[in-house]
Amino acid sequence: MTLSVSRIQHYLKSFKLGKLFIEELGWDRHSGKLLIEVDGTSYTLSAVAEKRGVQIFTCPPGAGGIIPSYATRRKIEKQVTKSAYEHLIIFIDNANSMQIWQWVSRQPGLRAAYREHHYHPKYHGGESLVQKLTSITFSLNEEEGLTLTGVAFKLRDVFDRDKLTKKFYDYFKRQHTTFLDFILMKSIIS
């Protein structure tokens, strides 16, 4: 099946996240539930997809139909980690007007780094999120050699902005230095 940006956008806007991951991105079906209690409030997270042990969950809103606060989202994530170490949580509100995609970067010797991407379908097309999602697509050709680590690395590459930004600036700095050296040599020769 050919990846379709318009179908990805449709699934995002209509909050059909299970269909997005399974039908469009090549993830596998998963229908588990996790009951998480944080500060006296219960949240029932629904697994919508998985790939080699990496699980995708949706988290319903808290009181008043709104997405839990950042501090509460972190507490929910810590509870989810006990059941599914590698995961992505998509927090949604009752009005289907907002999604927060939360992924946590865990690297040995470093503190967990929370990465969140906010998506408001009413206000933007979600181009940056669509771009991220196209990078975590899996084809049938990839299935045989795919591992938990491979899936987790793909998520890290997509959602770990600091790593990507650092790579870009390191590359830019090398190119800039090479260019300055070239200009300097040209001025010496001339």
- What is the makeup of the main sheet? 6 strands, mixed
Determine the number of helices (DSSP H or I, runs of at least 4 residues): 6
**Sheet/helix structural class:** alpha+beta
Question: Share of helix among residues?
Answer: 40-55%
Global outline: globular
Order of helices and strands: HHEEEHEEEHHH
Strand order of the largest sheet: 1-2-3-4-5-6
User: What value does the Rg take, in angstroms?
Assistant: 20 Å
What low-confidence regions span 5 or more consecutive residues with pLDDT below 50?
none
Distance between the termini: 57 Å
The whole-number mean of residue pLDDT values reads 85
**Overall structural domain count:** 2
Core attributes:
alpha+beta, 23% strand, 6 strands, six-stranded mixed sheet
Description of the structure:
- With 190 residues, the chain is an alpha+beta fold.
- The protein has 6 helices and 6 strands.
- It has helices at 5-13, 17-24, 70-83, 127-134, 148-159, 161-189, and strands at residues 33-38, 41-51, 54-59, 87-92, 99-105, 113-119.
- The chain has a 6-stranded mixed beta sheet.
- Helix 1 (5-13) packs antiparallel against helix 2.
Give a brief outline of the structure:
With 190 residues, this protein is of the alpha+beta class. 42% of the residues lie in helices and 23% in strands. Strand 3 (54-59), helix 3 (70-83) and strand 4 form a beta-alpha-beta unit.
Give me the secondary-structure topology.
Elements: H1 5-13, H2 17-24, E1 33-38, E2 41-51, E3 54-59, H3 70-83, E4 87-92, E5 99-105, E6 113-119, H4 127-134, H5 148-159, H6 161-189
Parallel strand pairs: 3-4
Antiparallel strand pairs: 1-2, 2-3, 4-5, 5-6
Helix pairs in contact: 1-2
